[in-house]
Queue: 2 jobs
Job 1
Amino acid sequence: CFLVDFSGSMVGLKIELAIQLAMAFSESCDLLDIPHEVLGFTTDYGAHFRCPSKSPAGVGYSRWEPLRHYILKTFEQKFSQTKHAYANALGLGLDDNADGEAVLWAARRLVQRQEQELKLIVLSDGYPNVAGGKDSAMRAHLKGAVQRCMTAGIETIGLGIMSPAVADFYPDHVVINNLDDLVSGGYRKLAEIFRQSSH
């Protein structure tokens, strides 16, 4: 599963790099007959609710905004059937990002599969962030989500899009700063994943 960060900080070159990489991965998976899906995540700032001055039992909220999760390509679809979804994705409203919840959402979808090897590749440029929430809680939750994935047997990899922040959350990670890195870093990691899958 390829999970793409569609948060506001990904605007411009970052989201273009991420989508190029996701498309290249998806097309390559199809050529090698590797089942896969492509997902995206952000939040809906325009629909956020106001936190009461005193939350129940004195517990504060770590997220105030509704989640927005996208399915760009399902396991059943071919890459050629979903090219329009990537083009449309460039026009999505980019808001905030609750990475841990998106990682767990993708993981829940993965564990329903019958394949022996499950891999989750997250393309992101930074730290979890939801306006009005608690960044420290969001970051701790993401670390816990990645650990839960690995404990469940899901190999989880972070691809940092023009940011090294993924190193704080994903033990296995690669940073991609430009198109050259897209080839030397992103594609090399893809080849490594494919070699492991073919064993």
Job 2
Amino acid sequence: FGRPLVAHAPEPVRALASSGFVGVSFFYVLSGFVLALGEKRRIADGTFDHRAFFARRLGRVAPAYFAAWLVLIAPFLLGARSSVVASVPGGLLQLAMLQAWWPPLALTWNLPAWSISVELAFYLVLPALVRALLRLPAWRARLVVLGALWMIALALAGAYRSLAPDGAVGPDSSATWLDFLKFFPPARLPEFAFGVTLGVAFERDRAPPRWLGPLAAAVAAALLAASERLPFALLHNALDRKSVV
């Protein structure tokens, strides 16, 4: 929303101001990391209660989620952006937290809420992901998994880029297949699984080198500063993840 303020700024500044959407990728990676780190011991020893976990996570996000839903009823039903008939299906999907499963309606009503819809889907698969990763024999195998997940994300975005089913697209574009790439939970799963893998592999008594964080931040900043020259589909939920490692 602040892009007009830097419309005449140098290209790296404009690019950084236009690439805030990659924060959602980092959110999913961080979410997978934190949840795996906190739950992996209970999952490993069989004391993990999936139903209680899901209820606990839902209890965290539901109050603010539904408060926002209620606040936005009047603007979306009375506003000129869409008719009442067109708004109702999106509103019902949002009420059920399922809007991300039908991407053409993911951005109706409360726009950022689609990310919570995706996150709830991730909560369902967390135990299976952690169990599978715990079976791997060594950290090298998990490193291979990290690379494979990144390549899967790149392949999805790369296929979209190559086939170009929606033509030229950018940060403000809304198109059918682009919406599936951006909002459909299975398309975003590699990001969450990437974070889960990091969480399973992380050992508290083996701290990473201190220089690794600044290096990752520098790589991310360099990529984002050049984002106007990079394919949007690749940057959106694939290319930026290499700086997280």
